[in-house]
Amino acid sequence: MPEANKKGLLIVVSGPAGSGKGTVLSHLLKAGGYRCSVSATTRAPRPGEVNGVNYHFLTREAFIERIARDEMLEYTEYCGNYYGTPKKEAEEVLASGCNLILEIEVKGAANVKRKYPEAVTIMLLPPTGEVLEARLRGRGTESEEVIQERMAQARNEIAQLRHYDYVVYNYDNRAEEAADIIRRIVFAEGYSTVHHPDITDTYFA
After folding, report:
1. What single DSSP character describes residue 172?
2. Contact residues for 161 (Cβ-Cβ < 8 A; gap 6+)
């Protein structure tokens, strides 16, 4: 019997601030077989950030040239700076059989899904809006104005949930469980007919 799809899956994970994406994905990466994409950006490096590790830091001109050459898998402009995913690196990871995780916002996710319909899109959410707000307040680092802005943004992001393939809830102190649910989604997707488009041509070959 043929094994599940050997090419890596392109996995898009989105979620509002406070959803715990970083923690959940860190659990996912520990298991092996997954890599997180290193995004490119035109913003200046922050103290401690390393080029090629945190981001690929590009000039605005270089980024625009990459867009013109269709070298970005997806990109968006936010607060005057470009952010995007280099296409070549992404395709190399997928060709190696490793699953590639893109942690991007809803607009970037929609762009990826249009170009790569086979991409698996997942929205990571706290169990309720009340929990989300409590997490934001629990940080103790943001003003009331910023918290309300983040909550408004979260409402806008969740309104796009119908465009995602899956929703995974990240309960307090259960990030590893959320990561395991994503692993099971990826396992099942490996057997989806979407990821075996050539089977009718190759089955009897």
Report:
1. T
2. 123, 167
Residues 6+ apart with CB under 8 A from 110: 160, 163
Write down the H helix ranges in 46-86: 60-68
Helix (H, G, I), strand (E, B) or coil at 199: helix
Residues paired with residue 56 on neighbouring β-strands, in sequence order: 40
Tokens representing residue 134 in the block: 């409590």
Burial 18-37 (b: 16+ CB within 10 A, else e): bbbbeebbebbeeeeebbbb
Q: What is the pTM of this model?
A: 0.86
Q: Convert the pLDDT of each residue in 28-79 to its tens digit.
A: 999 889 999 899 999 999 899 999 988 999 999 999 999 999 999 999 887 7
**In terms of residues, how long is the chain?**
205
Cα separations (Å) of 133 from 15, 104, 138? 14, 21, 8
Q: d(Cα 78, Cα 151) in Å, to the nearest integer?
A: 18
Query: 203: part of which helix (H) or strand (E)?
Result: none
- What contacts 24+ positions apart, CB below 8 Å, involve 50-56? 56/86
* Residue 109 tokens, joined: 């996710």
Phi, psi of 122 (to 5 degrees): -130, 130
